[in-house]
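hi support,

uploading two proteins for the ticket. first:
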Amino acid sequence: MVMEILMVRQVTSEEPITVNLVSSFKPQSTDIVFESGPDYKGGRYIHGQTTTAEFPEGSCPAVHLIWTLIPSTLTLLPEQSEARWGFILVVANSLGDAEANFDKGLNLMASGNLRPSHEHAWKELWLQSKVEVTGSDSLCKALIGCMFYLLSAFPSIHDTSSSFGGVSPGGLSNGGDNQDYWGHVFWDQDIWMYPAIALFYPKLARAVLEYRVRTVDGAKHNAQKQGYKGLKFPWESAVSGREVCPEDIYGLQEIHINGDVTLAFQHYLYLTEDVSMFSEGQGSQVIWGVADYWVSRVTWNPDDQQYHLLGVMPPDEYYNNVNNSVYTNTVAKFSLQFAVELADLLKHPAPKEWQAVAEHIKIPFDQESQYHPEYDGYIKGHPVKQADTVMLGYPLGLPMSPEVRRNDLEVYEPVTDPQGPAMTWGMFAIGWLELGEAEKAQHLIEKCFKNIQGPFQVWSESSDGSGAVNFLTGMGGFLQAVVFGYTGIRVQKDCLAFSPLLPNDISELCIRGVNYLGRQMDWLLRKDEVCIIVREHAGSAGNAKPYDLQVVLKASGTRIPLTPGMPVTFPQEPGCICKVAASSFCWPL
């Protein structure tokens, strides 16, 4: 971690300028017992261990800190028009790593390369992703802020240490008890933050999946403890994958987390065709372990001849111990179907129960009112905490008619808590964009600005400023509303589908660096046309070589090759991007 102070002389003067510094940094913790060690190259050094292991038989990790001392004053000398001071703090789990990183920081400062190295790293990231709109400065700033904070929470694209510990709703925890979610990892990572990052950065997407793979033993322990087979990923995850939620009910009932995790794996495969993540990378263990869990968790109901999931908590946490949460059952169905698909791909025998449960699990639907009740017995008009049933359309992609999609939006939007978590309105906005109602969508996107605090675009969890800060989950939902909402991009098995639509006050949307099947693409959306150019240098993805791609327009069936370096422009209408040699598409042509 680096802090810099820049002092600039504003008026001509021969007097020194001295500024007093007051530091609130106190290397004390209720969770770690620190001891002082000898100073290292002018830096203060302390070390210790956590007082409590993550689970009873677990180890207590070591923590080593080295930091440059902060003086009580800084002085700009008479002959100086400006001066810059740098301070570094290193945190590591061994003294050797702490000293090596401290040395690196000192060398960068001594050579004058500390800031340039930082700027170079960000330039490299921004070359791989950019989301900009023309017509709304506030929206443009918010989008840049979202990408900046999300990328800051992920590892470097050059990191090979396999030490990534996931992304928490508030990033690195800096609060006390019951603040910032203790730095734990929730479904927020896989459903809310991951999709926009995965669309641009396959390496960062894979880092999320590898984190989940490293927690498989903990997930197996959770399932066994609850009396089920397979894997039960924790509602709150840390290092081991064992449940660390302080309240048991969430870990026991909010089981949709399993499907949320597998959806991230599924999208990664469709975006990259990186099969190695599922073979050598052991991602198949996650998918098949979750499938085994669902099979052991469901109950067969002889009356309606369907499988039920009983005693669950939906994403809408205002309710618990309900039966057949429509979101939970749907995400279970899709993760079971993906398990069968992956087994076929890897020539692995799939238990017949996977397909049987997927085909016969209950998806609650009210035939009379033509909408999806949130769970069995949900009473229309009862309050809802956050986006839940509306997520059936996106990101889950449950097939439904436009009438049903509209009914779901109209039933739940008026009863959703206006003080609920910030990511919610982005999902409603995407729903309205699917139905062609861009202005309704824009109104909901604008609601999110109540959660953004200037001038640095910092997000609060709730619109009144309460909850986790800086709320990465809200940023993820906001980014998806633009990146997947305005473009209509949907990650599908054989293609990247799109259906663009811009609201009246947005004249252009530029999205650079979309990474699909080893190719990087830049998109420019205008009111009546779309321009796509494939970059001449292939993107970094897991497949052996980049594929040749084409645009296929839905209405006419027109196929337009995407030649690297050659822009392609076509009317603003639904279509898809797929392999030139693909034998199947997202729709009949």
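and the second one:
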Amino acid sequence: MMGGVLTITLLFCNLLLLLHPSLSHPLCTDSRAPFTLKTPLNFCPYNGSVCCNSTEDLELRNQFQAMNISHQGCASLLKSILCARCDQFSAQLFRGDSISQPVPVLCNSTFPLNTSQSSSASSSFCSELWDTCQNVSLSNSPFAPSLQGQSGVTVGSNVTKLTELWQSKTDFCNAFGGASTDGSLCFDGGPVVLNNTGASTPPSGLCLEKIGNGSYLSMVGHPDGSNRAFFSDQPGKIWLATVPKEGAGKLELDETNPFLDLTDEVHFDAEFGMMGMAFHPNFVQNGRFFASFNCDKIKWPRCTGRCSCNSDANCDPSKLQPDNNASPCQFHSVIAEFTANGTSSQPSLATVAKPSEVRRIFTMGLPFTSHHAGQILFGPDGYLYFMMGDGGGSGDPYNFAQNKKSVLGKIMRLDINNIASAAEISNLGLWGNYSIPKDNPFTEDEELLPEIWAMGLRNPWRCSFDSERPSYFMCADTGQDEYEEVDIITKDGNYGWRVYEGMNLYTPKQSPGGNTSANSINAIFPVMGYYHDINKNEGSASITGGYFYRSMADPCMYGRYVFGDLYAKAIWAGTENPENSGNFTMNQIPFSCAHDSPIQCNSVPGSSVPALGYIFSFGEDNNKDIFILTSSGVYRVVRPSRCNYSCSKENATAISNPSPAPSSPSSQASWLNDLSKNVLLLLSSLLFLVLFSI
């Protein structure tokens, strides 16, 4: 009986670990980014980038003292375990949750160490802890609460020794030890140190094939997992297309038959239009999808919403000057919901959507005529993320990006599955029909508007979640005068604008909205970026964010973050070293067009470089291939050998990963679906063991 219950306990612990996606770069257990201390901690021996402030340090000290440990060696080990919450990698050490898992995962010799973790890490720390502390009395032991009542120990008993809670070192280390092979870390008694894998040789070049002549702003793989994808353009149309296998032909897209046409509602101009689209993770079942666009209240009666320049944001719209002959908040940013239900026997087979709007999710008046971003995408958590610029005006004169009562210059996180009541919308001052995720940062910072997930951005232009490491939420943010940047977005992160532009302090030419001091914020600096002097001919630059490359078409690009510049016609690859460190080096990558491209590429006059035109955006299909959406057409990254680039990892005769089945209506194989299958499997195992052990 005891053995069966213990087995169930261990499976339960593993189930808890499954409830969190893979975590990687420096991140705290509350999903926030580590920060630099202004004064050293008094108790925990951590400095530099940490996850504990002085208040939390004092709480850990009090917890340690309450344990009343008489053995000096054991006390030292227990202190190091408690202080692991301050480690910049604590989200990994605690598998994202220091509440249900009160101690970090301890390095255990029976599990292999993560190859990214330093080889100097003690692989037997769990064994060392047991040998040192097994017979030491521990009050309020962190090893007891999560398992009391499940391993035969009566809840509330006075048992305080490890040997009285656990039958053996093996049982103890099976429960608290490990170093999984999925990229997770373990605690070895001190701050996490990662292996430096040395300088990585950048790919010799990026080979492209042109598969379409159209100019699009957004691309989203069909949620059914097939080889189809949606494309949208700035004037306001969405198309459903079939993506051919590499080298097999052109993009199958009928320009005369759009999936949805919103050109009557969308205001299209240089910086206005349809800025994004997002399909519900369960689109195959519910047919829901969303469009983000701009409208003109003078031309469209339904273009009505509150002005973002308002008294809550310490802004008076009557004092704003017209911008490009437009009055303040004449133009709006809108998220509207549409449906494919009722146009075919099932949503996955729909080739056209209903043209009428189902629900208005968000409407907000814009103070100026630029910097309103507008991308929307669903995160791995199922919430809708909405990227919003600072509203325009040179240097963000009203300091909207640092104003916690403004959603300008922010990334918002919305729950569109649970629509708030009219009373809740009014009480919370929401901008439309959505609700607020319960773990948004406002729950711990009452000054923040409830929609805000991250702040301090100028004009985030194209963001993406890494399909293999969901905690890597990458956003490119366009600069003002000097610097274009790439950021890793984290909960409650402040990315500095307009206190900083990149890593440099920024001084606005005018500031009717006041200023924010550098000492008053914990700015998170870019992980990559470049200065405007890379493009001397244009005299300007504007970054376009991309994706981590996860296709095997070009194995030498695998795991690198690919991004570009609108004007400079340059493409970079960002390489992380050490792996999972959040430290990147970037290399500008040569690119050329395959000689057998389905559509022949034009070249820049006097050069063999493809004439891409403007790089508007990047896209990713269900095969994880990367596409470049430009003013001259659609390009796909393909095998390097087709452009005579060398890559020792490439098998030139075949692509190792198979293409998705054509146009299959199967449900989306998302992370959440995979998780649910694993959970069901474990629950089934638990039930079997319960029945077997009774």
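thanks. also noticed: Residues 671-693 form the longest helix (23 residues).
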